[in-house]
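testing teh design pipeline on a random one, pls ignore if ur not involved
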């Protein structure tokens, strides 16, 4: 399948590292002019370097997605420079762990402010631009935790469930302008957010045994989905939550298939 994203303009939040950085680079390789946002300009240095090797038109901005005034400035500047916004990837997110009594109110506020309010503020700023164009793609990072929460992860799970309902509600509002809004639910992708591959071997095996495909996800797995959802090939998909977890929901005990099989891992 040929996906043509050339000359499209994409805003990607949380672009300094991890999945967000890979989304930026994958979109740029497909010909997209990428506008990469993260909290500080310094954090964006490596993304800026790698992006500019692919496309010198790429832009980076320090932008905390909790700051509505800063978002407005950044979006106005990007539109003045590039003329349009075709794709918004709300990737920035933070996690918090702990059973409820141990979670400080300030930690609850931070997670909801970044994951939910930040997504809301970015959509609010970009949607008028997309409405003028009568087209657009909004793609939101949810999480498998929005489908099945983890014990000790209620704060994060609640925030990502809110992102899913925001996605569905906006899909409904924006259908008349042919703006699609979708979310994806990654399972376990080792990044600085979770340090999965630095955990004790037995813990890693316990986590992997919950996956039908029995491997960690890769940032490229998510970036490939984002490229597809950004394209005209996905024009009839909206309001969807796409499970990209390596099959966490496919069967109850996926490790049994490995015990029965003669496939060496
Ligand atoms: N890694 C996984 O296994 C996994 C699973 C499910 C969902 N997700 C989601 O995918 C997204 C990316 O995850 P990751 O693993 O790459 O995380 P990460 O921690 O490596 O990267 C997150 C990025 O978001 C940025 N960020 C945080 N707060 C911000 C703010 N207020 N304004 C702007 N940028 C901000 C950080 O600086 C960082 O660069 C997150 O929304 C996360 O919840 C990840």
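output:
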């Amino acid at each position: 399948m040929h996906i043509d994203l050339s000359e499209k303009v994409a805003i990607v939040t949380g672009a300094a590292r991890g999945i967000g950085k890979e989304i930026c680079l994958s979109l740029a390789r497909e010909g997209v002019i990428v506008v990469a946002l993260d909290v500080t300009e310094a954090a964006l240095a490596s993304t800026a370097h790698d992006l500019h090797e692919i496309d010198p038109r790429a832009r980076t901005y320090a932008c905390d997605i909790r700051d509505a005034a800063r978002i407005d400035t950044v979006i106005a500047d990007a539109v003045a420079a590039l003329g349009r916004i075709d794709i918004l990837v709300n990737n920035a997110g933070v996690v918090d762990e702990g059973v409820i009594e141990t979670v400080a109110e300030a930690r609850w506020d931070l997670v909801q402010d970044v994951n939910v309010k930040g997504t809301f503020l970015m959509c609010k700023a970009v949607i008028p631009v997309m409405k003028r164009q009568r087209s657009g793609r909004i793609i939101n990072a949810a999480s498998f935790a929005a489908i099945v929460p983890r014990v000790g992860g209620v704060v994060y799970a609640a925030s990502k469930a809110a992102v899913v309902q925001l996605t569905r509600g906006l899909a409904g509002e924006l259908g008349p302008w042919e703006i699609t809004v979708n979310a994806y639910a990654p399972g376990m992708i080792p990044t600085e957010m979770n340090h999965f591959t630095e955990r004790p071997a037995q813990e890693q095996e316990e986590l992997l045994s919950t996956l039908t495909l029995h491997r960690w996800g890769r940032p490229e797995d998510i970036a490939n989905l984002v490229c597809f959802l950004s394209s005209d090939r996905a024009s009839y998909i909206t309001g969807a939550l796409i499970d990209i977890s390596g099959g966490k929901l496919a069967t109850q005990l996926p490790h049994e298939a490995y015990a029965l099989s003669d496939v060496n891992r």
